Amino acid sequence: MSELLQSNAMGTSPRRLDGIAKVRGTAPYAYEHQVHHPAYLYPVQAEIALGKVRRIATSEAEGLDGVIAVLTHLNAPRLARTDDAEYAVLQGPHVGFRGQFIGAVIAETPETARHAASLVAVEYEKAGHDALFTPDHPGQYAPEAANAGYETDTSEGDVEGALAGAVVVIDHTYTTPSEYNNPMEPHTTVASWEGGRLTLYDSTQGVHSVRQTMAPLFGLDPEDVRVVAPHVGGGFGSKGLPHAHVVLAALAAQCSNGRPVKFALTRQQMFSLAGYRTPTVQHVRLGADADGRLTAISQEVVEQTSKIKEFAEQSAVPSRMMYAAPNRLTTHRLVPLDVPIPSWMRAPGECPGMFGPEVAMDELAEACGLDPVELRARNEPERDPDSGKPFSSRHLLACFTQGAERFGWHRRSATPRRLLQDGWWVGLGTASSTYPFYRNPGNAARISFGSDGTYTVQIGAADLGTGTWTTLTQIAADALGCPMDEVRLDIGDTSLPVASVAGGSSGTASWGGTIIAAADAFRKEHGDSPAAGVETQAQAPEDPDGERYAMHSFGAQFAEVRVNADTGEVRVARMLGVFSAGRIINPRTARSQFIGGMTMGIGMALHEAGIMDARFGSIMNHDLAEYHIPANADILDVDAGWLDEADHRAGALGARGIGEIGIVGAAAAIANATYNATGIRIRDLPLTPDKFL
């Protein structure tokens, strides 16, 4: 087992090592990388939802001064593989969704490229499309597996019999809409070819995963693709895997007379080309005895997917392990539509999937005459109900105990609609959070010692704004037994040892454990007083406890809301989350991550919903003017805390990941608080004013 020499850096809150460079504008994001004599790309997008391009006229665009080339399916280079429809860019005339790439202009300036793209004339052969999501859609089906490899359906015991015999039954349908990732930095790629080798400066959560996807598409060995991403301006999962724009940039760079090509999606284009969270319809049934102890849990989820590429969000999975109940049923069904491809968004599965059950638990608590915190205590499992394994660490009730005390939960009225202050109904609500622990295998780190007395630590990790530059330096310093200023970290490049994607809250735990293993190997090989020039590369060790324990993080969300008695406007006056996530490496960046997730949860609860016009297959509010994400004025008092712990069954680092759990349960806590304030139970997100009038 790898060991830490000391714990002087971890647990402290140094400022972000990349902070000054970002404030000064010297930290290069993808589009800002300096390349020689770049050209610029702007796409032509389909204006129908289904059919094919019958004719595409490019002569007017090609005649514009400054245009280098216009690409269509008729002249674009052929890809080596086209089995993934998302990546088969410009390989044929078929259109599978509105907004799909059907052409592209390469020009001397981005303005010229955009103008020329508007001059490309397209005639279509339309087909009858289906873009209307309904839970009783006749085409719905069961996927072979849900995202992350989870079983599609699970069944334990006799759910129907238990519900029939239950003293208290909650049986309702809960819905969440389509939601869209909107990181500050749009999806951007700069592509360059040189001697049959492809270089990509890409805004990505995983440089090595981009390489592994792109290399076979272009018939290249992985070593012939270099991906660089030292700084990323947010991702939330949407940059966890490459999308079609990366392929289009690389194709364009093959047709730009040897010049690099820069391509940045506009905010509007991101709504159809960068993935999104599927809408969900969740039929949740809870059965309990007179004391509120669950006898049955059932969650049946219907979601949408694109016809051209399947994505099955694992929304029912958390119900399998959250509470003790002998009879459990979960199912996932997909409705295939002629729409853009859904994909990862912060806490896929857990985020939408916990909304229905956690609101249902609030309804059950009221039906049983119990405090919502007490109800959860009565249904705390001793082991993982799904796998039967012991939990490596489960401190959900400690989160509720600490959170309730800090938040002043005792002031909550058990009777809804009791407190009216200055024209606002006031209420408190709570909900549970959970997120599984993932530690990805196959990572490697390289450590060398220089003549200047500093260690260079190299790993192909990514920092999408979470603080990786800082936290990995802290981990390396403790592992090597030196101050932080004696560690130089290199990340964000496929020329560095392989690293997994920054997704699933797995990054710091996976990479940090690898760095500890590499430091352990370095010390064994070179001692504590190494000679200049020596280096060691090592992989992360096997995880002996991974199969023996169920590993999850947990949390308790608390919200105080105010609902205007005249307008129905909802304001989240206070919010607190208390989390159990293993060792906290850097409290400053950890708090930022927790609060960031909770802020997204406020947006999910109050504002966010993609509005599909099924007549055209188009998301109508595809910009930040009409798709509202939280702004400063929406966020009043949000705070986060955590338990002081380390889960060493989760590896030598003792951390389980924090990036995603903050959003889980947040919307349910807010919805429960609005019921406590108004006596009106809303089961459909977002909680817009009209629903309270």
Describe how the helices and strands are arranged:
Layout: H1 19-24, E1 39-45, E2 51-57, H2 59-62, E3 67-72, E4 94-95, E5 101-107, H3 110-118, E6 121-126, E7 154-156, H4 159-165, E8 168-176, E9 188-194, E10 197-202, H5 207-217, E11 225-228, H6 244-253, E12 261-264, H7 267-273, E13 280-288, E14 294-306, E15 327-337, H8 350-353, H9 355-368, H10 372-378, H11 396-407, E16 420-421, E17 424-436, E18 444-449, E19 455-458, H12 468-480, E20 487-490, H13 507-526, E21 535-539, E22 552-564, E23 570-580, H14 587-606, E24 612-613, E25 618-619, E26 638-642, H15 666-678
Parallel strand pairs: 1-12, 10-11, 14-15, 19-20, 23-26
Antiparallel strand pairs: 1-5, 2-4, 2-6, 3-5, 7-15, 8-13, 9-10, 9-12, 13-14, 16-17, 17-22, 18-19, 18-21, 22-23, 24-25
Helix pairs in contact: 9-10, 9-15, 12-13, 14-15
How does the helix and strand content classify structurally?
alpha+beta
How many strands, which pairing sense, and closed or not: the largest β-sheet? Answer: 7 strands, mixed
CATH architecture of the largest domain: 2-Layer Sandwich
Q: What is the averaged pLDDT score? A: 97
User: For the largest beta sheet, what order do the strands appear in spatially?
Assistant: 3-5-1-12-9-10-11
Shape: globular
The low-confidence parts are none
How many beta-strand segments?
A: 26
> DSSP strand (E) fraction?
15-25%
**Number of H/I helices:** 15
Number of domains: 3
CATH superfamily of the largest domain: Aldehyde oxidase/xanthine dehydrogenase, molybdopterin binding domain
Query: In CATH, what is the class of the largest domain?
Result: Alpha Beta
Oligomerization state: single chain
Task: Calculate Rg over CA atoms.
Answer: 26 Å
Ends: how far apart?
60 Å
Q: Helicity level, as a percent range?
A: 10-25%
What is the fold-level CATH name, i.e. the topology of the largest domain?
Answer: Aldehyde Oxidoreductase, domain 4
